[in-house]
Amino acid sequence: MRETLEALAAGDLTPAQAEARLRGYATTEAGRFDAAREDRRGIPEGILAEGKTAAEVAAMADAAVDSTGRALVTRAGDETAEQVRSHLDQEHPGATVERDARARTLVVHAADYDPPSVDADVVVVSGGTADAPAAREAAVVAGEAGPRVETVEDVGVANVTRVLDEVETLRGADVVVAAAGREATLPTLVAGLVNAPVIGLPTSTGYGVGGDGVAALLALLQSCTALSVVNVDAGFVAGTQAALIARGVGDDRTGNGT
């Protein structure tokens, strides 16, 4: 605590950074940002934009960058994303702001931020173009934890040769996230082709009864192969789970595991 207070007095830490060190979170008018989550869990906290005003998202992102050197915003619409970008450009000159409009994510890195590196490979594979929002969200989130991430898109099982053409890439992964809607056959097929853990990500694409992702979720829960399943469109959760598995693989390779 003394070291933190001395650094604050010397101007080496901002009040937000000092608070984050002492309490584990930074307080804003919009809420409390869990600045210690990466140290505690190995994954950064994501700022969910849905249900928040643009000003609230910007305040949380500001606190994230101030206390941890980066911010990860999810489910951000175009208007919110632009307002957050404008705010951060003023408050954190030199920071990079990357927007994936399809994933609805914003990733902000301060100029002096040193990103983590994990010696492991994550592959995110999706059945159709309509599955891209959830799949890309998973890829962005996993990548922020440090592993190498590759995406394979539009390989739905209506033409199974599309999947088979990517078998070499899939088998090179340490963990696979497989996103699919409708009856969600793709994750089961992939899990039968690789020896890495597979995370099934059902999406809300399809028609009629069960077309909002229910059929995909139930199909994956009844899969005849060994895989894990997250909720419908839960790209963030799938990405974090993949990152945690990748971190364990990386620790084993570098000798940091227990």
Report on this model:
The protein is an alpha/beta fold and 258 residues long. Helices cover 42% and strands 18% of the residues. The chain has 11 helices and 11 strands. The protein has a 5-stranded parallel β-sheet with strand order 8-7-9-10-11, with helices on both faces. Helix 1 runs antiparallel to helix 2. The radius of gyration is 19 Å and the shape is globular.
Name the shape in a single word: globular
Q: What is the count of helical runs?
A: 11
Spatial ordering of strands, largest sheet: 8-7-9-10-11
Residue runs with pLDDT of under 50 for 5 or more positions: none
In whole angstroms, the N-to-C terminal distance is: 29 Å
Q: Which structural class fits the helix and strand makeup? A: alpha/beta
Percent of residues in β-strands: 15-25%
> Main β-sheet, in a few words?
5 strands, parallel
Quantity of strands, as a count: 11
Instruction: Give the ordered list of helices and strands.
Output: HHEEHEHEHEEEHEHHEHEHEH
Radius of gyration over alpha carbons? 19 Å
Mean pLDDT: 90
Amount of helix = 40-55%
